[in-house]
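PROTEIN DESIGN WORKSHEET
SECTION A - STRUCTURE
LENGTH: 184
TOKENS:
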């Protein structure tokens, strides 16, 4: 399975549909709020949300929605990234609620080679996130510095840093003859 792309593999206009989706639970939302110290009652207090908001129920914190969508895009977009350079824009255009399932897709808007280093380039992308009904809830644009193929080859190829399994008494190695089962 591919994990990210090199500069040469991106095509302007291409759209990558991220899979699988993620169903947002109340637990997920509350944990994220508590970890990030966002204690707004819109996210944590169902009585408050039911009685005093236009939605009548808790709304998932926007930074969690963004984080899910960004994470979904990693295998298709930034899995080989050298750096995330910029979040150009981030818009929450509709609420996400507990129990909603988020899906995302990313379109390549532009790309250009680095002006300072010839082994990398920048990819400009837009990600949209939508729920199980197809309602778009979040849109963001970002710029990602990605390696060219020569950068990857100089550092170990597709899976840099991956060790080689070492034969020992428990595993004789890939070229060893399998033992015959004992008769019994």
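SECTION B - SEQUENCE
RESIDUE ASSIGNMENT:
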């Amino acid at each position: 399975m591919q994990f990210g792309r090199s500069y040469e593999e991106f095509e302007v206009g291409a759209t990558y549909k991220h899979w699988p989706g993620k169903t947002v639970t109340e637990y997920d939302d509350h944990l994220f709020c508590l970890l990030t110290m966002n204690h707004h009652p819109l996210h944590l207090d169902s009585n408050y949300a039911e009685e005093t908001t236009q939605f009548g129920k808790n709304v998932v914190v926007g930074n969690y929605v963004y984080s899910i969508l960004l994470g979904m895009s990693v295998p298709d977009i930034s899995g080989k990234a050298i750096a995330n350079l910029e979040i150009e824009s981030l818009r929450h255009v509709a609420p996400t609620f507990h129990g909603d399932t988020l899906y995302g897709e990313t379109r390549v808007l532009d790309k250009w080679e680095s002006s300072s280093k010839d082994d990398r380039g920048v990819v400009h992308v837009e990600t949209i996130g939508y729920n199980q009904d197809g309602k778009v809830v979040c849109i963001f644009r970002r710029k990602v510095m990605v390696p060219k193929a020569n950068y990857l080859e100089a550092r170990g190829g597709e899976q840099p840093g991956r060790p080689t399994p070492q034969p020992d008494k428990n595993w004789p190695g890939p070229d060893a003859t399998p033992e015959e089962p004992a008769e019994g």
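SECTION C - NOTES
The chain has five helices and five strands.
Strands lie at 15-23, 83-92, 101-113, 120-130, 136-147.
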